[in-house]
Write the structure tokens for this entry.
Amino acid sequence: MYVIQLLDIVRVKGKHEPVKIYEVIASGHISQEKKLELDEYDKAHTLYMEAEFKKAKMIFLELFAKYEKHLYNLYAQRCDQLLDSNLENFDGVFEFTSK
């Protein structure tokens, strides 16, 4: 059994279908602390996917402050960018514009 974390959903230049990217966290069981971290990340990522950027950003910042994982800061920055844009029909997919 592997414990995985969804890192992102991306669409690369020239492709139409998004791809989910995962990180393998562990093979087997994880500590209670790691489980709590992943649960909080899942909560924040769900809010992000629902375009609840203010709420998601708060959780991502808390996660970054506690665990210093670049992923959490990246999502907090994305939330800021998305809050500043007049976004319609957010699908949660990050689109790469260059190769």
